[in-house]
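Thread: quick sanity check before group meeting

JM: Hey all, I'm pulling together slides for Thursday and realized we never actually wrote out the predicted structure for the chain we discussed last week. Dropping the sequence here so it's in one place. If anyone has concerns about the input, flag it before I start.
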Amino acid sequence: MPVRLADVSNDPVGPYNRLSASQANTWDDCPRLWWYQNKQRLKFPQTPPLFLGRAVEETVCRVLMESPGLVMPSAPPDVMARGADNLLPLFPEEIPSDFHKWSIERINKHWPNIRDTMHMEWQKHERRGGNWHDYSMDSYRDMCIAALEMHLEEVISCKNSITMEELSDWRSGNRGLIPAPDGRNEIINPHPLSADGECTLLEAWEIARPWFVDPDAEQFSMNAIHPDHWFQGEYDLVYRHGNLIRIMDLKASLGVGDRSGNYVEQLRIYAMLWSVTHQGQIPDSLEIWYLGVGVRKIIQVPSAKEVKDLEYKLNNLWKEIKEIDVEREDCPPIPRPVRGFSEGGVKIQDPDEIRCTSCDWSNLCPNGNGDDDLPDGGQHQPPSELKVYDLTPLGKLNPRINMFCEVFSATHVPEKAPNILVETTDGYAFVKIIADEVDGEKTYPEDISKGDNVRLVGVIPSTNWKGEIQFKVDPYARVVKANQAEEEDTGMLDFKPRWNIVGRIAYKTYKSGIGKNGKPWARKGLVLLDKTGRISVEGWDNAWPSLYNTLQQGDEIAILNVSLDAWAIDLKANLEKNSSMHVVSRLDD
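JM (edit): ok, ran it. Output follows.
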């Protein structure tokens, strides 16, 4: 079946260290590109087509979940919210005769809400790029129609070729181990939409419905994971009627340009993933559906030997870049040539173009305008000051402390983490539990109460807007009961409140919104790199000096008197009232 989850009790890799098709393709495009985006966790600009593509896929899947035998064309988009088991089959005279028209009407019901939700997600993204209104919403809606037209081709093919054995099996209520998402939880015999005699178009719609990622499923819960856990992927559509396995990849694009080469490799990798999770079975066909031009591009299915060779190659890549901790020097800037494709993913002559000219990181990379001589701490003396500031390498910044203390009060709130106040000889502090559960385990003792002695392990100290000390508990921190302090424990006031840093600018960030008081807010930021790591720097819009507006990728700056924050492995510096920023060097110098 399409889904194969990890065996948690026998998983030496873990959910965050698996290889994926996109990572393999990025490595092949350029190892240094992979380094920037996967080890340094740099985010490329989030343009509207990325979010509109997701909107297209969700809209298509929402319509595929529905049935012309259960859902009227004019039904609201949430008609399936309570599941298909709660819907009565339509009377024969109510079932539409034109499934194409029904599909368009259902798209028109789903598309506006999904499109607007993706628009809001794009607006919230700190790395958003481009202009939403530069893109035609009608064009992307038409891509949904193109996908459903291709699906209807599958429905008609199913109706014309289905065997009585397959039809009878479905009519008896057999849905398979992992059925295509159809909103049903119950097995009913016979199937509520079954008929007699030859297969009807409605039955063919139900039988041909492909497996896809349920839009309501939790993220990453529909993955297929390699039996040895080092690789994972997620199929778009898997058609299984006619006892054939056919994997389709939806692309909300025209199929023009270099990226179409990656799409081909992605499908070949998915054929390998299917084979290793299905006792060596190789899919019967592979297709890319270019929805921008309504083209189904057929990809040659790899042979059994090619599947084995591909698995061997990818496993070696995982060992090279994921099993061990690689350094920048292990990821040289060696881009592969740009490939040429025309509409529909048709291969054409490769262009005379260098990949580096369009790379998002060209001002950081030695193959572009940058170099590998990154900052590494040191000292900085601002031109107008006598004082010399020590600069801490980013990899040596430590936002966390361990502390032994006593619980002064613990107020338990239903279905929420408790409100905890702790005390030491230095005073009182709040414990702010942001992550109350990690991998099914609480980050604090559920029976915590006044008078308990506890250790705060890996907590992040800060002060709130009132100046009160608080310790944040994120996924990497814990509150544990203890009888005594340990050697590495510090006092409540022993953490370093301000730091001085230096780094090369990777990009700027911006996010905004409306606060609970109804007033708009905005925060600007920078992502900096040095030889030892990376950090995000954030501050309120009006806290940044005008110098911020002149900065570009590749400039190096020192920022003095920042406080630290963190979330899991992501380190953040907060621009405070007394922080200052100074240019060390410009890219153009």
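AS: nice. The chain has a mean pLDDT of 95. The chain has nine helices and 23 strands.
JM: adding both to the slides.
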